[in-house]
Amino acid sequence: MVDFLVTCLQAATPIWLAALAGLFAQRSGILHLGLEGLMLSGAFVATATAIRTGSVLAAIGAAIVVNLLLSLLFWVLVTHFKANVLIVGLGLSMTAAGATGYALVAFFDTEAAIESPVGLPRPLGGLGGPLAGLSVLTFAAFALTWLSWWTIRRTRAGLKLSACGSDPFAARSAGVPVDLYRMAALQVAGLLCALAGAELSLAQVRSFSDNIAQGRGYLAFAAVLLGGVAPVGVSVAAVFFGSALAFGIQSQLDFNGVLPPQFVLMLPYAATIVAISATVVIKRRRGEEPEVIMERTL
Asked: What residue intervals traverse the membrane (predicted)?
């Protein structure tokens, strides 16, 4: 049982970090469908840098720098060029999926997975036991959840950020630089997605393969909606989706040959649909209006 719970945490960590990224973006008024692309770019850059330098710090640093630049481009497109935020997000994810696959061939002359010589530190690795396999970013996810809650709920910057998303016109009237706050939120999202990508490629398998994210960025986006755009709720939803992924993996081992593999692989995504649908039904029965996905209002 403990081993399965640890597997759930391992599977949930990249989704968890990306969901916190989507939380900050959505708090500022931006629906971030580019989480998948940022995770992929972070995973590839982290692995490639680790192979070239042999340094975990350099790998994470490079992934953060690349994602900050991509997030800045995202902000320029939706703010200055008035591009549709949903299309830009999807374009970022699809471009990253193709670009990382091409980069595998261009830089490493292979379409197979590339292996990293180093991995993320494991704080409890020397103690043994089931918790020894957890990377430092799994423990950091708990701290980042609390930090996100404190920033959003207890600081002036966090309150202004929420105002940018809930009523940008009123925020501008009060003198809040909405565009700058949105840029800051996207930069935070880029950093967190870089950590999520590093967790994917340097924690568990220590390698990068084409489309390694496998939709986790979209699960993170769903976790933001399911969690009510609140740090604790988003984190719980991310762990739920991670548990569904872990259950799918375990089912492949336990029911190999009994259940079709396609059925097992679809479980986490089916759980996403069921969870969000249940949330909408419950809110309607309570007389509440479910959240509506709208374009960013400038």
From this structure: 49-78, 85-108, 128-152, 218-243, 263-282
